[in-house]
Amino acid sequence: MDQEDEIDPRYELRLGAGRPLPDAIAEKLRSLVDSGMFKPGAKLPNESELARNMRVARSSVRTALQRLEAHGVVEVKRGVGWYVRRRAPVAESDGSAGLLVKRYPVADLFEVRIGLEALAASLAAVRATDGEIDEIAKYNAEHLDAADAPEELLRTDIAFHEAIVRASGNALLFENYQQVVGELTEWRFRSYREPGVPLRSGREHTKVVRFLRNHDPSGARAAMNGHLHRLYDGLPEISGEPLDSTDSGADGEPEWPNRSVGL
């Protein structure tokens, strides 16, 4: 192996059979923070550099960073990069570590995501400023321009949905959304390799933007529900009538499938 191909031992991952790669990356980054290599307030290497150092895909690095963000270890400054938080993160031993240490089925995560984002879209239609809506529309335009580039499709999709949740003005909703959606990043990245998904996604985003501009909370909620339900319908564990084609009425609830779950 050439010297330039050797992995920096500081970034070597502890991998195990069946262990998700983002978990190993998150553990390694947290250990680098705890060791003092990255001090409070310090800027982390960008996602591409971290991916090169660890010999992994950038999408896996982003998933790991989003999980650490949900637990107060790092924070993102839009257009600048990722930083170590100045305040101490929540200890994982107090039962509040949440999704970082417990795995949930994708369908469970998606059902919670639908509820959070539908509410966020409705609130954003009432509360978002013209500037915030312009930013949401800008991310959608970038998403449409991304064509078939999965990395760029993922980046713009994350930015679009996150901007809507931020525009809801509800900090608790945003915090819970970040935890849930961080667990879905790898799945979202893979979904953009499916034919037709990028174009359909952009068109459905455009419908959400239209209702936001019209300050129509019911329309924004319905458009977001339809967009996310279509993705939910495509999950392997979901069968039966698609949610977005059920006739549940303007104020009704979709007919959720009675799938086998355990709590």
TrEMBL record:
Pfam family, one: GntR
Residue ranges the record marks as coiled coil: none
Segments forming domain HTH gntR-type: 19-87
Swiss-Prot/TrEMBL keywords: DNA-binding, Transcription, Transcription regulation
Region (Disordered): 235-263
Name this protein carries in UniProt: FCD domain-containing protein
